[in-house]
């Protein structure tokens, strides 16, 4: 099995590496969203594991506790926690990011009180703020220090500056290698499909980082052997996509998704953490100011960033995809759409989409995308 095959395996069987880690006596710290510092979890000697939903897992148990207007990917995560699908987690860190993610923390607290026999990991709220003021930075730093103490308590190990520096170096290397993957997608022609990219990036959240770094280096060394992809180049925006359903449909039409603004895709990695600073201060600064998360930027900054990234990727069109009840990215959509179309870049929007597609959903999405691609082709040839 080659490098991509191993990453594909760990993306498909997301608990594979974590369960192996547990068998060897290690402990697993799950986390939600990309604004929890993996570096601190690594430095504590724990396995950092980002939890995700599963469109095929159902939500019957979660539906007993969560309100109707609740983002379906988070509802799925909540359901998987309640039904034992994450029974290998020893701990879980939940950040104050999206409202639904924060609510999951309180839902879990309620479930623990109502049903104390239900097996749940120890969970912890990482309470961060959503502005970039100096005072906010001080608050975030203090919360990172609190998290450090909690991780030391969980692991029984002191998190020294030396351990933190090593962890920062490991994660920075992963970010640098993933940036090379993003750059390859932006080449014309691209040699990496959007589906391949999601699996390469996503597997970094389910595997030991050093092992993933080795696989990335092997994959990048052999990328010239991959066939060129000459189809229309599209960029994806909107809700985070923690599965392959939508890209599978899109790329079945012959297009290539060359980039996305998603924390499950190119939006995951970001710039490196500054290694010359005190490691705790460096981590706090990065997760306060540089974490690639839309909740930290103004709409105008998000619009500017969108146009820049679409142009850098050489995209000929942009797909906006919104899961039902996921209202946050919709605030930016009108301004993003206008800015892109003012640049001559066509857009299409899929709104209130189900987390699990029916056959009718698939046919409808595919039909609209095929018409979108034809319209761009006619405009370019006209």
Structure description:
This protein has one domain: Rossmann fold, CATH 3.40.50. It is globular, with a radius of gyration of 21 Å. Helix 12 crosses helix 13. Helix 3 links the parallel strand 1 and strand 2. Helices cover 49% and strands 12% of the residues. With 382 residues, it is an alpha/beta fold. The relative contact order is 0.12. The protein has a four-stranded parallel sheet, sandwiched between helices. It has a four-stranded parallel sheet with strand order 6-5-7-8, with helices on both faces.
Please state the overall shape, judged from the principal axes of the Cα atoms: globular
Mean pLDDT: 94
- Biggest sheet strand order reads 2-1-3-4
Detail the poorly predicted runs: none
Outline of this structure?
This protein is an alpha/beta fold and 382 residues long. Helix content is 49%, strand content 12%.
Features:
about 375 residues, alpha/beta, Rossmann fold, about 50% helix, globular
């Amino acid at each position: 099995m080659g490098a991509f095959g191993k990453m594909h395996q760990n993306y498909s069987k997301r608990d594979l590496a974590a369960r192996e880690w547990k068998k060897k006596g290690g402990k697993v710290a799950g986390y939600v969203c990309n604004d929890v510092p993996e570096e601190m979890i690594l430095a504590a000697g724990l396995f950092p594991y980002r939890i995700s939903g599963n469109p095929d897992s159902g939500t019957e148990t979660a539906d007993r506790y969560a309100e109707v207007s609740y983002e379906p990917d988070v509802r799925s995560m909540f359901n998987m926690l309640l039904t034992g699908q994450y029974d290998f987690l020893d701990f879980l860190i939940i950040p104050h990011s999206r409202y639904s993610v924060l609510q999951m923390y309180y839902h879990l607290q309620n479930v623990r009180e109502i049903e104390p026999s239900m097996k749940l990991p120890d969970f912890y709220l990482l309470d961060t703020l959503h502005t970039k003021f100096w005072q906010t930075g001080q608050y975030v730093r203090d919360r990172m220090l609190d998290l450090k103490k909690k991780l030391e308590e969980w692991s029984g190990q002191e998190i020294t500056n030396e351990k933190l520096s090593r962890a920062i170096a490991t994660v920075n290397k992963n970010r640098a290698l993933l940036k090379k993957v993003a750059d390859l997608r932006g080449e014309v022609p691209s040699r990496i499909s959007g589906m391949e990219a999601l699996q390469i990036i996503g597997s970094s959240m389910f595997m030991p980082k050093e092992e993933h770094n080795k696989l990335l280096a092997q994959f990048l060394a052999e990328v010239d052997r991959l066939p060129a992809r000459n189809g229309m180049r599209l960029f994806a925006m909107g809700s985070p996509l923690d599965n392959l359903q939508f890209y599978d449909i899109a790329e079945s039409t012959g297009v290539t998704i060359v980039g996305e603004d998603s924390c499950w895709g190119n939006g995951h990695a970001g710039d490196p953490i500054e290694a010359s600073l005190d490691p705790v201060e460096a981590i706090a600064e990065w997760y306060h100011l540089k974490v690639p998360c839309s909740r930290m930027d103004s709409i105008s900054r998000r619009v500017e960033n969108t146009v820049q990234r679409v142009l850098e990727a050489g995209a000929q069109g942009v797909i906006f995809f919104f899961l039902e009840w996921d209202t946050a990215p919709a605030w930016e959509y009108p301004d993003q759409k206008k800015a892109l179309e003012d640049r001559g870049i066509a857009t299409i929007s899929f709104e209130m989409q189900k987390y699990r597609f029916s056959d009718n959903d698939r046919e409808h999405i595919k039909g609209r995308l095929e018409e979108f691609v034809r319209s761009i082709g006619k405009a370019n040839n006209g």
